[in-house]
Amino acid sequence: MNSMNEDRPVLKLRQKIGYGIGDFGSNYCWSFVASFVMLYFSNVLGLDTAIIGTVMLLSKVLDGVSDVFMGTIIDRTHSKMGKARFWYFLSSFPTAFGVFLIFNIPARLTENTQYIYIFIVYTVLGAVFYTMNNIAYSTMSALVTKNNKERVQLSSYRYIFAIGGVLLLSYTTSGLVERFGGGQQGWRMVSILYAIICLVALLIPVFAVHELPEEAFHGETTNGQTKEKESFLKTLIILVKNKYFIMGLLYYLIMYVASGVFQGLGIYYCTYNLGNGGVQCIA
Questions:
Q1: 3-class DSSP assignment, residue 142
Q2: What is the pTM of this model?
C-alpha cells in the first residue's frame, strides 16, 4: 500500500511549472551577482580586484559551512508551511533585497569601509540568505511529492527555467546598464529591476506547491527496516570517514575555485574583447 501511494502522481502541470520558475528567480539573483559584481566593484567603484577577490574567497569559506547547518535546520523545522517551504518563503525577500544592496555601495564611504561593507553584504547574501533559499528550494522537491518520477520532472523544469534565466540575463544586462545611464546610476536601476524580477519569480513556487504533511513520510522503510535519523555529529563523522565523500569534496572545491576564476576573469575578457560582458554568462 505504501508503494502504491508513492507511485501515485499528485502534481499538476501548472504546479511543476510554478516550482520550476523558482530557479529562474534564483539564477537571476545569483548569476547577476556572480557574473557582474566584480566588474561593478572595479570599474564603478575603482576598488582593488585583488583585495575584493580575497574578501569574496573568505566569504565563500563561510558559505560552505552554512550549507551543512541549513540542511540540519530544515530537517528539524516544524511549521504550518512545512519544513523547507517556510525557509524558502522567508529568505526570498532578503535574497532579492541583497541583490540591490551589493550593487549600491555608498560612495561616501571610505575605501576600507567599502571593503567591510562588501564582505558583510556579500557574506550575508551568499552564505546566509541565498544558501537558505537554494537549499530549501531543492529540498522542497522531495517534500511536495513522494512520486520519484515527479521529483525528477521537478528537477527538469527548474533546470529549463534556470538556463532561461541565465540566457535572458546575459543578453540584457550590459545594454540595460547603458540604457539607464551607465555608471552607478545604471547599475542602481538594473539592480532594482532585477531584484523585483527575482522576488516575483522566487515567490511563485510558494503558491504553486505545498508540502505533504509530515505524517506522509513517517514510517518510511529501506529493505523492510524503518529509517532512523542520525545525530548531526554522527553524520559528520561518517562523512569524514568516507573516502568517496572526501574525493567528491576535493573535486567540488577544485571545480568551484576554477569556476570562480573563470567568472572573475571572463567578465573582463568578454567586456573588453568581445564587447559584451553578458557572453561570459552563457559560457
A1: helix
A2: 0.79
